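Consider the tokenized backbone below.
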């Protein structure tokens, strides 16, 4: 076997690394721009956690591990854990120990940052997928299991054909009933901002405030206010839903308000708004079977990918 050299990522390797990801991770279109946004300008990115494998001067492997340095807004601290969000070995160089070498390098890096647990790959906000795609990368899943990783659960991503979307009669009636009860569901307006952030901090601490902040900034610069839907009652926000391009979500209802149909109304309002923007498809990357049964299946969402979210104690 030719000698493998493992070196930390450096800027001059960018194009070759992106090409490798495109050639290897066939289910995940990763453009240079996406890599820049999700990796290189991430405040937690550290080249030492991003090993590149080189054989005869050619890049044949890449891995990305992250140890958070800056806390995620209001989220519970995760200093004890690290994340692996990418791992790829060129198809012609697989099964030669290169993936193992990259993985060892990443685990050593995370240990050196005092992480006790490693997760593949739910790193908010810049994960690529919630875990290993069990169909597209079945070999990748076996690889991680062989190295002592265990499945936590299997998140799913789903797509919905918006052209077929019909808002069921009962959802329309539910919205009327909610209105009579004092719950208004409407698109973003700036007056709702303080209550919206109060709600997000209390109910969904972490990444959701960023989604809302970025959506609001874009709306104030010309995007449609129907990108963001808010349910509110007596001056307090009780639910929120959002889309960006074809990506639907996040959507969430206050714990104490679940079961009233607010989530259904928010979902259909948002999907309808997407449809009226001319979009043909809505998708999301990360949900679970239970939510699919309770919410998404009836609206016409079908499973497109299934992932294994993995963990290992270091
Ligand atoms: C997963 C991956 C990074 C492993 O890299 P690698 O260099 O091939 O792995 P190694 O040679 O170090 O280890 C190989 C071991 O992993 C397991 N393994 C790897 N690929 C496998 C496959 N396609 N089928 C079954 N087992 C596999 C086996 O146990 C194998 O040992 P063996 O060859 O003695 O049977 C590489 O196969 C890859 O890039 N796959 C496509 C992308 C992917 O799945 N990435 C992970 C999810 S993001």
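A designed sequence for it:
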């Amino acid at each position: 076997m030719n000698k493998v050299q493992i070196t930390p990522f450096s800027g001059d390797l960018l194009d070759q690394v992106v090409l490798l990801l495109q050639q290897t991770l066939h289910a995940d279109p990763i453009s240079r721009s996406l890599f820049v946004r999700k990796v290189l300008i991430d405040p937690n990115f550290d080249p030492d956690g991003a090993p590149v494998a080189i054989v005869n001067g050619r890049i044949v492997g890449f891995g990305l591990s992250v140890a958070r340095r800056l806390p995620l807004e209001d989220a519970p601290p995760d200093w004890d854990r690290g994340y692996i969000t990418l791992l790829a070995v060129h198809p012609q160089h697989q099964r030669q120990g290169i993936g193992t070498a990259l993985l060892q390098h990443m685990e050593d890096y995370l240990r050196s940052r005092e992480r006790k647990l490693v997760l593949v790959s739910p790193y908010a906000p810049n994960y690529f997928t919630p875990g290993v795609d069990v169909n597209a990368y079945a070999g990748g899943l076996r690889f991680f299991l062989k190295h002592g990783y265990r499945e936590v659960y299997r998140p799913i991503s789903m797509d919905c054909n918006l052209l077929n979307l019909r808002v069921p009669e009962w959802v329309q009636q539910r919205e009327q009933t909610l209105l009579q009860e004092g719950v208004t569901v409407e698109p973003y307006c700036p007056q709702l901002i303080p209550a919206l952030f109060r709600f997000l901090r209390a109910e969904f601490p972490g990444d959701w405030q960023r989604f809302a902040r970025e959506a609001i900034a874009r709306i104030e610069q010309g995007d449609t206010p129907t990108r963001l839907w808010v349910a509110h009652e007596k001056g307090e926000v009780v639910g929120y839903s959002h889309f960006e391009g074809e990506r639907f979500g996040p959507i969430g209802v206050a714990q104490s308000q679940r079961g009233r149909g607010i989530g259904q109304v928010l979902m259909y309002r948002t999907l309808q708004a997407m449809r009226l923007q001319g979009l043909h498809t809505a998708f999301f990357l990360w949900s679970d079977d239970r939510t699919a049964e309770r919410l998404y299946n009836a609206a016409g969402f079908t499973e497109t990918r299934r992932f294994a979210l993995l963990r290992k104690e270091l």
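The domain at 4-155 is CATH 3.40.630.30 (Aminopeptidase).
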